[in-house]
Amino acid sequence: MRAYRIESFGSVDGVVLGAGDDPQPGTREILVRMRATSLNYRDLMVLKGGGRGPAKLGVVPLSDGAGEVAAVGDGVSRFAVGDRVIGCFHPRWFGGPIKPDYLTDRLGANLDGMLAEYAVVSEEAAVSMPTHLSFAEAATLPCAAVTAWVALTGHNRVTAGDTVLTQGTGGVSIFALQFARLLGAQVIATTSSAAKAERLKALGAAAVINYVETPDWHEKVVELTDGRGADCVVEIGGPGTLANSIKALAVGGHISLIGSSLSRSGVMLDPLLLGGRGMTLSSISVGGRADFEAMNRAIALHRLRPVVDRVFPFEKAPDAYRYFESRAHFGKVVISHG
């Protein structure tokens, strides 16, 4: 079996293609012939030295992938050979509130991930693919899509008529735009590119603010909502945007802090921003299998299709890393395994 492994931390050069024995599924495990994988910001964090959590050298990178079941171990009842499946980001979080030990299992960091011809996963750590999606599209879902879904449908659920503020054009932000529209909300997006602004509008954004031209973009959000502000902010930027996000928030509104935005320290906030407005903040750590399955039902019902920016062949996986690192993408960057 051919597989990439992280041989050294620090740069894309540490991701090396090699060969090894074909893995075999154990009890309650399935062997998946990987057809596509996708990149997330956390994969860059892992490559640069581990990110937020345990990591080790020698692991197969990337948490997100889709493929077809090639073999099943003893006792498997959820899937059969030939089924099209997607791996879960948290392999032991099936439902309910998150627990600390779920965070210690990190695919592509301290556990072998998906950037290989085959992967073995627990049958409990996979979900069925929506039938209308390609493998490339399905591979985009485990981290970015589930994160966006939970950001909008978690403890503070977005409802029809709400206003959602998204930031940028990465995977989480694009999925958040798509899901917010699906839920009946209007979306205000921020970006720094006129070309990307047009694409955001084509996806259904009611308004797009160029944050370079309008550094106090929170004022524009308030103006666009007739003085009310956004009901939900999907916060990607972290230290550079959180204060503005709070100022853009409606009374009683909610900010979903995405995990990658919390990886950068240096947030200094005026305590007066937080007081007297009934606002809430929550940190999103992707979601469990139940969230994934609920999201997939919505995706299937509405025939939603993920936005895939570019697809790289398996042999060019390092190029996919470099392109993703350039931040030129709009939506998801995918690697096709053939």
Task: Detail the poorly predicted runs.
Answer: none
Biggest sheet record: 7 strands, mixed
* Second rung of CATH, namely the architecture of the largest domain: Alpha-Beta Complex
- Counting copies of identical and different chains, the oligomeric state is single chain
Give the number of DSSP strands: 15
Q: Averaged pLDDT, please? A: 93
What is the total domain count? 2
Top CATH class of the largest domain? Alpha Beta
Shape: globular
Distance between the termini: 14 Å
- Helix fraction, binned, reads 10-25%
CATH topology of the largest domain: Quinone Oxidoreductase, Chain A, domain 1
Kindly estimate the percentage of residues that lie in beta strands according to DSSP.
25-35%
Q: Report the C-alpha radius of gyration, rounded.
A: 20 Å
Element-level helix/strand string: EEEHEEEEHHEHEHEHEHEEHEHE
- Mind telling me the CATH superfamily name of the largest domain? Medium-chain alcohol dehydrogenases, catalytic domain
User: What is the count of DSSP helices, taking H or I runs of 4+ residues?
Assistant: 9
- Indicate the structural class: alpha/beta
How would you sum up this structure, described in words?
With 338 residues, the chain is α/β, with parallel strands linked by helices. It folds into 2 domains: 2-140 and 306-336, Quinone Oxidoreductase, Chain A, domain 1, CATH 3.90.180.10; 147-284, Rossmann fold (3-Layer(aba) Sandwich). Helix content is 24%, strand content 26%. It has 9 helices and 15 strands. It has helices at residues 41-47, 135-138, 141-153, 171-182, 194-202, 217-224, 242-247, 289-302, 317-325, and strands spanning 2-6, 15-19, 29-38, 64-72, 84-87, 118-122, 126-128, 163-167, 186-191, 207-210, 230-235, 249-258, 280-284, 308-313, 332-336. Strands 3, 4, 5, 6, 7, 14 and 15 form a 7-stranded mixed β-sheet that branches. It has a 6-stranded parallel β-sheet with strand order 10-9-8-11-12-13, with helices on both faces. The protein has a two-stranded antiparallel sheet with strand order 1-2. The longest helix has 14 residues, at 289-302. The two termini are 14 Å apart.
